[in-house]
Write a structure and sequence with these properties.
about 450 residues, Rossmann fold, about 40% helix, globular
Length: about 450
């Protein structure tokens, strides 16, 4: 289980929690939900980046933390001399102490870990629909990264393969002729996304981006850039190939051949025993397993094996029923044994839709297959043990019975007393108090 400890970062005073596969953070505005989400996002990204580099030395540059956490996630002024973060994940363990101390260590079985597709979806996603947004000067942060990803993703959907937006009676496509994001309604009318409702401007980039991260990328072969190919080549093959070149068992022609892997395998088998031992500490009997290890490493770091998506306020500008559909949509797409999800929310509808999904999983064996209403969102059901719902109060995580660093879930994993319930109780109490003064009409 991954763990995260944060002290004195922005509004967060002191939390120490075990992160689950699916994590939901609720609480008032400015309570620290996004602060936690951004730190989780940085943690997952750093694991991926270190796996790709197969090294931790490069992070020792003086501005690494400043550029990749503080500036990228717009956490300027959040860090103080007594700030502290410690993350223990699948791949690495790192601790940040104050504003300058940053220590990272590889965890056990580092060589066997696989990279994932990390995506941070900011609450400012409506900006993506502004015409000409791509030409504006933007600083390197999560908004700019989301924008560039969106500019790449949205072109995948044209008139002939438009994207259904939930079941809202609307489809999205990029009009190549007019260079315009377009919404097509069931009645045949179409409008530019830039002039659509705020709800559509929020949900369209969210749905399409989410689908691309958790679904499309696994169903298609990613186009790896020349720069990345060279990086992977240098990480996996170059040290061994250079040694073989010095040994005379490999030539420049072989290095440039497109069928590098096959010929590399042959060249490796022809290398002298001294070279093999120098590089890998192996003898002839272990050569096959060494080759397998090399090729497995290539597979582990050159393509994503899971998704880790962090979403700020998915309910933004959406009608309650649409919020429910959106949560079901997220969970229906995800591989619940592989992918990870973090959501920050102010919405009781998001929370209780999730509760329905957990309850569905608990009672799934009791439901008749012909009960259509009960199974309408069966693909979204999720094991409550994979879900943690955290409530933030005054800089702390507070769970049931006011216990710190615990979830607000009961023994079955279902949602118990929480922030939203207390607010609703206050509202209904005020109504009942005032109702007694309403004159009766005979």
């Amino acid at each position: 289980m991954n763990t995260l400890e944060i002290k004195n970062v922005g509004p967060i005073k002191d939390i120490n929690i075990e992160l689950n596969r699916f994590n939901i953070f609720i609480g008032p505005q400015s309570s620290g939900k996004s602060t936690i989400a951004k730190i989780i996002s940085f943690s997952h990204w750093l694991e991926k980046d270190i796996l790709v580099h197969q090294d931790i030395e490069y992070i020792k540059s003086s501005n690494f933390l400043e550029e990749n956490l503080i500036k990228f996630h717009r956490l300027n002024d959040y860090f103080k001399d007594d700030s502290y973060i410690c993350y223990h994940g699948d791949v690495i363990t790192f601790c940040i102490d104050g504003q300058n101390s940053f220590n990272v260590e590889k965890n056990d079985s580092f060589e066997e870990k696989k990279v994932g597709k990390i995506a941070y979806i900011p609450s400012e996603r409506n900006l993506m629909t502004l015409q000409g947004i791509e030409s504006l000067p933007l600083s390197r942060d999560n908004i700019r990264t989301f924008l560039f990803d969106w500019l790449s993703i949205h072109r995948k959907y044209g008139k002939d393969n438009s994207f259904d937006i939930l079941d809202l009676g609307a489809k999205f496509y990029f009009d190549e002729d007019n260079r315009q994001d377009t919404i097509l309604f069931e009645d045949g009318n179409k409008i530019s996304l830039a002039v659509a409702s705020s709800g559509l401007q929020s949900v369209v980039p969210l749905c399409i981006y989410f689908y691309d991260v958790v679904k499309w990328v696994y169903d298609h072969i990613e186009d790896i850039s020349f720069k990345k190919k060279n990086l992977y080549l240098n990480l996996i093959y170059a040290p061994l190939l250079n040694k073989m070149r010095e040994d005379g068992t490999i030539t420049d022609d072989l290095l440039n051949n497109e069928q590098l892997k096959e010929q590399f395998t042959e060249a490796f088998s022809q290398a002298t025993q001294d070279v093999r031992k120098l590089l890998w500490g192996v003898d002839d009997k272990t050569i096959p397993s060494t080759l397998e290890k090399i090729f497995r490493l290539e597979d582990n770091i050159t393509k994503p094996h899971f998704s880790s998506v962090i979403i700020e306020e998915p309910e933004q500008n959406l009608f309650p029923e649409t919020q429910e559909k959106l949560l079901y949509y997220f969970l229906s797409l995800m591989d619940k044994g592989r992918d990870k999800l973090v959501i920050t929310t102010h919405s009781p509808y998001i929370l209780y839709a999730l509760n329905n999904c957990m309850l569905g999983w608990l009672v799934k064996d009791e439901i008749e297959d012909d009960n259509v209403e009960a199974i309408r969102f069966r693909n979204s059901w999720i094991n409550p043990s994979d879900v943690s719902i955290w409530e933030i109060r005054a800089g702390h995580i507070v769970g049931l019975d006011e216990i710190k660093n615990k979830t607000i879930q009961d023994n079955d994993g279902l949602i118990s007393s929480n922030y939203f319930d207390r607010i609703m109780k206050n509202i209904t109490t005020d109504f009942a108090e005032l109702l007694q003064y309403l004159p009766t009409h005979e």
